[in-house]
Specification:
Chain lengths: 115, 113
Amino acid sequence: KAGVTQTPRYLIKTRGQQVTLSCSPISGHRSVSWYQQTPGQGLQFLFEYFSETQRNKGNFPGRFSGRQFSNSRSEMNVSTLELGDSALYLCASSLGLDRNTGELFFGEGSRLTVL
Amino acid sequence: LAKTTQPISMDSYEGQEVNITCSHNNIATNDYITWYQQFPSQGPRFIIQGYKTKVTNEVASLFIPADRKSSTLSLPRVSLSDTAVYYCLVGDAIRGYGQNFVFGPGTRLSVLP
């Protein structure tokens, strides 16, 4: 079956702009979580959605937001971009239900460059 | 959330067995231990998960002592393609909630010919 799909794969923005990234989870997966990866900070958790509700949130400013649709697809938005937002943004999906292994399936990421 | 500590980097040669140890002194009763592998510019990939004792699959083994304050990922007979960053995560995976696993800096494994 198809894996986790993230779009776009690469994008370039300038400071002050906003960006929306999309993630299509594996069919049947109801949990989608987002991560930011930078060389200096490593992989950092942004937030997790389950059945259209944000279930957990990491320590990121309010400029970072997300949502999940009824088909489990998720989007994340970053407003008022800063240079430090340049990173690889990873989406992961999982069943998100009790009695599962909790294995996260990651997409290949969206690489954002802010100029 | 349990914090994990791993070696920053390790070197090995092809054909050797590699053991990467992760410390997680504050692991909670419901926490599982999961290891992921990441290649450059790709998302992490699940390797193995366990709760206690030993777990083995087709690519690795995971050893967890009785106190669960550490775990060791064992990769048998590594090859050049095993060069990657390996992350140890601790979290309440089975409940399916709070999947905000805390990824530490990981261990950068370099396999040399």
